[in-house]
Amino acid sequence: MSASTDIARAVTRFAPSPTGFLHIGGARTALFNWLFARHHGGAFRLRIEDTDRARSTEPAIAAILDGMRWLGLDWDGEEVYQFARAERHAEVARELLAKGHAYRCWLSQDELAEMRARAQAERRPFRVESPWRDRGDGPADQHFVVRLKAPREGEATIEDRVQGPVTVANAEIDDFVMLRADGTPTYMLSVVVDDHDMGVTHVIRGDDHLNNAFRQLGVIRAMGWPEPVYAHVPLIHGADGAKLSKRHGALGVEAYRDELGILPEALANYLVRLGWGHGDDEIFNMNQAIQWFDLDAVGKSPARFDMAKLDNLNGHYLRAADDGRLADLVAPMVEQEAAHTLDDLQRETLRRSMASLKPRAKNIRELASGARFLFRTRPLELDEAAASLLDASSRVLLSGLHTRLSGATDWTEDALDAAVRGFAEEQGVKLGQAAQPLRAALTGQATSPGIFDVLLLLGREESLARIEDQAG
Question: Which residues are tagged catalytic?
Fold first, then answer.
């Protein structure tokens, strides 16, 4: 089958194990599969690999689905749950057994441990060499496993779309277990059967699965099924080149949203650029990514995750975001700190504040922190930096500013600017010398949006009351 025909009917899949959150590396794998399918007008399927019953949980499944929806990754058809298909997986193993491509193995755990110890002592890789490979007269009263009868002669080659041609001697591929002694199928078998039954044509996943691909090919070829196109993507490393860990930012997608305040479009943009590129383009939306994405531009070297770069990219998306949307994201954080629900007027004030706050912020958390002065109760508790700005002379200036602002005929930026600048000139001080104590009195902080933005957002009554609280 030609490559063009293959791609014309491309079906990809994302197959997470629901034993925890949607990991950042898994999110990138999902994105690559989704983009490839959408670029080629194919289908993107979702399979929940919940065969580990002890560790698979409903909250983890919900977190995965929620994380994908938040990133904008829609899938085609209903999600497939692997455990529910266990009988189908076992059926394939029995078919392979009947065709002579698998065998019953009665090796005990003690015998396997002895083989492993011998291989270790001889400093050679451990491969199961079962005496039951070519015989079936095992003890009827003992349990057995079903192993694939992997080829032993020659070699297997995968034309990987990322790694290039990869060849492994068949002698290095073991006769892996397909059915356990209790009759349940193993993950290695289930993956192959599900990919075939779901019509998956392109398997795009981390390169830590490359060795598995050769083992899984044994099942595919024994069953006479079409072989998928493989693309094994290098894993993500930390900025220091070490394997990605929590200290580098290896968190769940929900942590980037809830704890770090990252926007979904920023995270998606950043993840797509980890290991894939389109010229010098760094900032793009998902419609552009769909148009441009293909496997040829995926690199062979591990990408490096840099939290500072993600923050900077997120800052770009914050500045471009709708103020109403940002206010809706910030409101719950502000309400939690203020310990009360914002009314309609306060929500509108929050929305108006976004234009002033978002140029200074890199994430939603910083936006919320910047907005908190709007809803603080009087008299304001000053932070250490703000308190240092309000010495005796500064409080005298505040008293004069209160008088001047009280007499402002209009509470507009131009009128406020004229009033504060005029007062500073009369007092023989620079604008900053008047603005800094004014900022401290109005916000309780040494940093804030522009002082005239603060005055406008707080309004005449609240602004004058806060200044009076701190004036000498």
Answer: 246
